[in-house]
Design goal:
Layout: H1 18-38, H2 44-55, E1 59-60, H3 61-68, H4 72-84, E2 88-92, E3 100-104, H5 106-116, H6 119-127, H7 131-152
Antiparallel strand pairs: 1-3, 2-3
Helix pairs in contact: 1-6, 2-5
């Protein structure tokens, strides 16, 4: 008995990979964000950290890293650059000196408020989609990301 291969997909084979579509879309997002964020003198990862702190200020470094899906070796230099720019402060936790908390400075709060006043609208326009469509897509991608993190988590550890 011989097996036959399914017919080859038409077009570029990479177009058949969801992972590549997500990757290429991420690169496109970065190209749109860059000039918007350059106005504020911050990078995309710094923007995400400031947005996360705006939502819940004075977070521990580990909580912020978990929220951003960043390891400490990536997050610590990012926080140090934000601190050097005067946008955040780092302090030791009063109950546990081993824990470092990160909070927005007044300048950081002002910057992120200004950025959030214009960047989301510019991004919405760049997508060519309606807000409801983007919200639905975001929910689907967040669910996909959670499922993939769970599948990739070592046995016995939640993702």
């Amino acid at each position: 008995m011989s097996e036959t291969s399914p017919p080859a997909p038409q077009g570029d084979p990479l177009d058949q990979f969801l992972c590549f579509s997500v990757y290429a879309t991420g690169l496109a997002f970065n190209r749109v964000y860059k000039p918007l964020l350059d106005r504020f003198g911050i990078t995309y990862p710094q923007y995400l950290a400031l947005v996360a702190l705006r939502g819940a200020d004075a977070q521990t470094v580990s909580a912020l890293g978990a929220k951003l899906h960043l390891e400490s070796n990536t997050l610590t230099p990012l926080i140090k650059r934000l601190e050097s720019a005067g946008l955040v402060t780092r302090t030791r936790d009063k109950q546990d000196e081993r824990v470092v908390r990160v909070a927005l400075s007044d300048a950081g709060r002002s910057l992120i408020d200004d950025a959030l006043g214009c960047i989301p609208a510019a991004l919405l326009e760049a997508t060519g989609m309606r807000a409801e469509e983007l919200t639905a897509l975001n929910h689907k991608l967040a669910s996909l990301g959670a499922a993939l993190r769970s599948a990739a988590a070592p046995a016995g550890r939640a993702g």
